[in-house]
Design goal:
Length: about 325
């Protein structure tokens, strides 16, 4: 067979094979496409799934027949319901209006809250509490307790000041710059008391308040002439009291107190133990008392009972960077409510 005929033969055979394969491929594709275009079979399952989806908050508000499950925290758990906002809740109210909202208690308790840094965004840092959740904390505390100052404790202990509601005390450790930039303006606006425990060696360094800012905080008086904020000591350099020589502890207590009082022109009455180390130790308590401190705040978790206040071993509740509703539940549980 001539070469040209051979080439023509193989070429025509190859073309026929390709045509056969292509035809088969198109047939399979047509079947697949036809299957995809087949309408779905109607069943009751989709209706069941749709019925299982809960109605939106808007639907709930429009349906007056729906009854919400009662809860002791419903009035303050608005971050779940989406019905309120912190700006609307944290309005300026008279003491009478605030007192009318706070539940009366036959056995009132006091919780001391321990904060560190307040930040604008969620950074994930253990000591950072974001502003959004911090404002929610304030709403919860104002709705469920009266917010008092740590300076009120001796008068509660002596019986000069009576409590008929739960109470809360706000404290901030270390002296982060956020206490001046974020916390101070917010608490001034809503007339809320607080104590700031300062590490004296850190003052004026990067990220921390300076002495002028601390003095401004300390000097502030509200419209009624009341002092809202107090400055306490958190030691000279934030070293653990169970990790330094015993003879160094008096220096930490007395020198830090002296420096703060000289800089801000106001007495320092309370000390916060670095890391809570040394809580309840007699030598630390005796030294603090001799140095002129009225009390020591530890990091021990617990609440204060008005009838048995131990001013030199005050417990606290650590406000971590957790959701506000979770911490509110934990605080409420700690109070036994």
């Amino acid at each position: 067979m001539p070469i040209k005929k051979v080439n023509r033969f193989f070429s025509s055979e190859f073309t026929a094979t390709n045509r056969a394969l292509a035809a088969a491929a198109f047939s399979v594709l047509a079947l697949l496409l036809a299957g995809c275009q087949t309408p779905p079979v109607q069943s009751n399952q989709s209706n069941i799934v749709q019925q299982a989806i809960p109605p939106s908050p808007t639907d709930q508000e429009n349906d007056s027949s729906m009854v919400e499950e009662p809860s002791s925290l419903d009035p303050v758990r608005w971050w779940d319901q989406g019905k309120q906002s912190p700006i609307r809740e944290l309005v300026i109210e008279t003491p009478e209006q605030l007192a009318a909202r706070v539940p009366k208690r036959a056995d009132p308790k006091i919780v001391i809250l321990m904060y560190h840094n307040i930040v604008f965004g969620r950074t994930g840092g253990e000591y950072n509490r974001d502003l959004y959740n911090f404002e929610h904390d304030l709403v919860f505390l104002r709705n469920r307790s009266q917010i008092i100052g740590i300076d009120d404790l001796p008068y509660i202990k002596s019986g000069e000041k009576k409590l008929d509601t739960d109470a809360s005390i706000l404290t901030f450790d270390d002296g982060d710059l956020s206490i001046y930039a974020i916390v101070f303006p917010l608490l001034k606006k809503y007339d809320i008391k607080a104590t700031f425990f300062i590490i004296t060696d850190f003052v004026g360094t990067v990220g921390y308040v300076n002495w002028e800012q601390l003095k401004e905080i300390s000097d502030y008086r509200n419209a009624r002439g009341e002092k809202l904020f107090s400055i306490g000591s958190h030691s000279l350099d934030h070293k653990r009291f169970d990790g330094i020589p015993a003879e160094q502890i008096p220096h930490e207590l007395t020198e830090s107190k002296f420096i703060i009082e000289k800089k801000i022109g106001a007495p320092v009455w309370y000390f916060a133990l670095p890391f809570g180390a040394g809580a309840g130790r007699k030598e630390i308590i005796d030294t603090a008392r001799n140095a002129g401190y009225r009390g020591i705040r530890s990091s021990r978790k617990g609440v204060v009972h008005p009838g048995s206040i131990d001013l030199y071993n005050l417990p606290a509740f650590y406000m971590s960077n957790e959701r506000a509703d979770i911490l509110a539940q934990q605080i409420y549980s700690l109070l036994g409510r």
